[in-house]
Specification:
325 residues, Rossmann fold, seven-stranded mixed β-sheet, binds NADP nicotinamide-adenine-dinucleotide phosphate, 2 domains, Quinone Oxidoreductase, Chain A, domain 1, globular, alpha/beta, six-stranded parallel β-sheet
Length: 325
């Protein structure tokens, strides 16, 4: 038996709670792992609060991310004692996940834990931080270099936003954070933001072309915020779109693309191929200041995950929630 957070949905409705589960109930997979830490990303928040249809198979052990130790393996790349980090691949959605003392995963899903990080630090980064790195890699591939001008980060006090700010500032960019939390301004500046703007400035419908300001954008918010960010991006600039905290819609025009040569780069972490994951985790090991990472962390026990998920969905969390299994 092992301890797990279990989500159930049936005639009796939706339930979420920590319980003991028989190891025989784990799904098939080449590698049996013991996650030492997991985390709550936006998607975990949706799953744990049953807010949108993230979970496709019931009952479900949630937790899209985990980091810890391999216990058993039939995969050639993994042996007992190896330290791993896992992000995405539909785990916690269609396959039992890492908010549990045991998980059975495919060997090809796992990434070797970089020597620079403990499992706890890897989960402080989590899918949110690894996605922030994917966004930075996309901006760089489209030519962003330090000195190019201001880089906007939206959803700034959230997980993706916090890590993106820390990374971009460390790489020498001038970062402007857009946040709805005035109380987080000092936190965002300590992460490296040179200025903080009210997210309300970007939240409503705006003109298709506006005054050029941003050399690049990391957007975790979507909807009008992404449309306005595109409309304010400078000639030849690039916008990495990874999130939908405001909405899934994109009420924009083609004007920024055809009149200013702006590039919209889509970012997906869930199905990102292994070489890209490896590159992202190596760059995180190089470019993320562990001391700054620690300022983002709120650590909770597994038993508090459901209440923390409700806070996350209510927009009351700053930075990253790490779950001690
Ligand atoms: N593409 C991918 O593979 C991928 C991977 C990870 C995450 N994501 C997406 O990226 C987004 C951020 O994820 P996360 O883990 O960083 O979530 P998070 O920690 O909950 O942060 C989201 C932030 O967005 C801002 N926000 C919330 N509601 C908003 C609204 N109505 N309008 C404008 N801003 C709002 C808040 O920041 P402020 O209070 O500072 O404004 C909040 O802290 C989510 O939509 C998530 O689904 C996508």
């Amino acid at each position: 038996m092992f301890k797990a957070l279990l989500l159930a949905k049936d005639e009796a409705g939706f339930r979420a709670g920590v319980t003991q589960v028989d190891e025989a109930r784990l799904p098939p997979g080449e590698v049996l792992v013991e996650p030492a830490f997991s985390t709550l990303n936006f998607k975990d928040g949706l799953a744990l609060t049953n807010k949108s249809p993230v979970v496709r198979v019931w009952p479900m052990v949630p937790g899209i991310d985990g980091a810890g130790t391999v216990l058993e393996s039939s995969h050639p790349d993994w042996k007992p004692g190896d330290r791993f980090v896992h992000n995405g691949w539909g785990v916690g959605e269609t396959h039992w996940g890492c908010l549990a003392q045991r998980a059975r995963l495919e060997g090809d899903w796992l990434v070797r834990l970089p020597a620079a990080f403990t499992p706890r630090q890897a989960m402080a980064i989590g899918t949110a931080g690894y996605t922030a790195m994917l966004c930075v890699l996309a901006l760089e591939r489209h030519g962003l270099a330090p000195g190019a001008g201001e880089v906007l980060v939206t959803g700034a006090s959230g997980g993706v936003g916090s890590v993106a700010i820390a990374l971009l500032a460390r790489l020498g960019h001038r970062v402007v954070a857009a946040s709805g939390k005035p109380q987080s301004a000092d936190y965002l500046k300590a992460l490296g933001a040179s200025a903080v703007i009210d997210r309300a400035e970007l939240a409503a419908a705006g003109k298709p072309l506006q005054k050029e300001r941003w050399a690049a954008v990391v957007d975790a918010v979507g909807s009008h915020t992404l449309a306005n960010a595109l409309a304010q991006t400078r000639y030849g600039g690039v916008v990495a779109a990874c999130g939908l905290a405001q909405g899934m819609d994109l009420p924009a025009s083609v004007a920024p693309f055809i009149l200013r040569g702006v590039t919209l780069a889509g970012i997906d972490s869930v199905m990102a191929p292994r070489p890209l994951r490896g590159e992202a985790w190596s760059r995180l090991a190089r470019d993320l200041d562990p001391a700054l990472l620690e300022t983002m962390v709120e650590e909770i026990p597994l038993e508090d995950a459901v209440t923390a998920a409700a806070r996350l969905m209510a927009g009351q969390v700053q930075g990253r929630i790490v779950v001690r299994i």
